[in-house]
Design a protein that fits this description.
The chain is an all-alpha fold. It has 2 domains: 47 residues, Orthogonal Bundle (Arc Repressor Mutant, subunit A); 123 residues, Orthogonal Bundle (Tetracycline Repressor, domain 2). It contains 9 helices and no strands. This is TetR family transcriptional regulator.
Length: 177
């Protein structure tokens, strides 16, 4: 079993802090306390808080893409057909994720540096929902899958697993897969 790098340890600790205190809670002081690393050790990996947050977005977006690749049978986006890519993405988005994932994703919109890794993953895996000529079923499936992904963090009562399965089946029908 490989050891986690210090950089990954810092980023994992950042996610734990976000789970309890949100993005504002991610500070060098707090990370030093949680990780046991010195502030200078943290600054070595992330010279500024901005660099830390960029790293956090890159780390989280890469983890998201790994989940998508796992659902695609280990294949990358360029190894799949368009519909196979969308199916892998849709199934990934149907999974219930910790609220931390949602908070980090929402935070990406606050700066172009934070958004970049997410846009890169989206461009590889999602249809272009900004183009009117995009297949309407693909647009519907993508938007509905996003809603499914966020559902349990928006509403107090989570979606029953059986109902989640039905929604996924309906979304897959939109993809004709």
């Amino acid at each position: 079993m490989s050891r986690m790098s210090k950089k990954d340890q810092i980023l994992e600790a950042s996610l734990d802090i976000i789970a309890s205190d949100g993005i504002p809670g991610v500070t060098y002081d707090r990370l030093a306390t949680v990780t046991g690393l010195s502030k200078s050790g943290l600054i070595y990996h992330f010279p500024s808080r901005h660099d830390l947050l960029v790293g956090l977005h890159e780390f989280t977006a890469a983890r998201w893409e790994k989940k998508i690749i796992d659902h695609a049978g280990g294949k990358t986006a360029d190894e799949l057909t368009e519909r196979e890519r969308y199916r892998a993405m849709l199934v990934t988005m149907s999974e219930h994720e910790p609220v931390t994932e949602l908070l980090v994703t929402l935070h990406a919109r606050t700066h172009e540096d934070f958004a970049r890794p997410w846009v890169e993953v989206e461009d590889r895996w999602l249809p272009d929902v900004h183009t009117p000529s995009t297949d309407k079923n693909l647009v519907a499936a993508t938007v509905l899958a996003s809603g499914l992904w966020a559902h349990d963090h928006i509403y107090v009562k989570p979606l029953a697993p059986e109902n989640r399965k039905v929604v996924v089946e309906k979304l897959l029908e939109l993809l004709e897969i």
